[in-house]
Amino acid sequence: xxxxxxxxxxxxxxxxxxLFARPPAxxxxxxxxxxPAGESRQLVQHIAxxxxxxxxxxxxxxxxxxxxxxxxxxxxxxxxxxxxxxDGREVKAQEYLGGGRQIPPxxxxxxxxxxxxxxxxxxxxxxxxxxxxxxxxxxGRRRELYFNGELYTEVSYSGPDIWRAQVQLxxxxxxxxxxxxxx
Length: 183
Hints:
The protein has 183 residues and is an alpha+beta fold. It is 20% helix and 40% strand. It has helices at 2-19, 105-116, 119-124, and strands at residues 41-51, 54-64, 69-74, 80-86, 91-95, 130-136, 141-147, 150-157, 167-171, 176-182.
């Protein structure tokens, strides 16, 4: 009888430990790459965001330059939601209308870099635990970003020219997707 009680107590203790076990750690946000040298670009985009089971349509206005990146997200009616500024060292964000449920601004900036920055610049600035691959597909091209061998983000382009292509991005770690159409 005593053995059965000890066995039951041991099983309950081990089962209780499983209840308090930490969930697997989320990978960190991807490090940001420096600003690319060269000419500036201005983008106006329609962005469909899918996050937490909801889809939102946004407008994006971006300036990508060698000294500064500015990204503004607006509602389709033109109401400002978020401004992001990146000078190659520091990310500053100004949220409007509360913004409590939004995707982290730094994650959005990292995704913009993943979509538009030159592949060699991104690869040169990834720590050892990160891997970035790009391949041509029948429809355009695809980039896949891995963290410790696990797919972190996938980007599909509708054509070979990234500045004209429609883009689909699936951010696996934070659980959101973006469909980007340059206007």
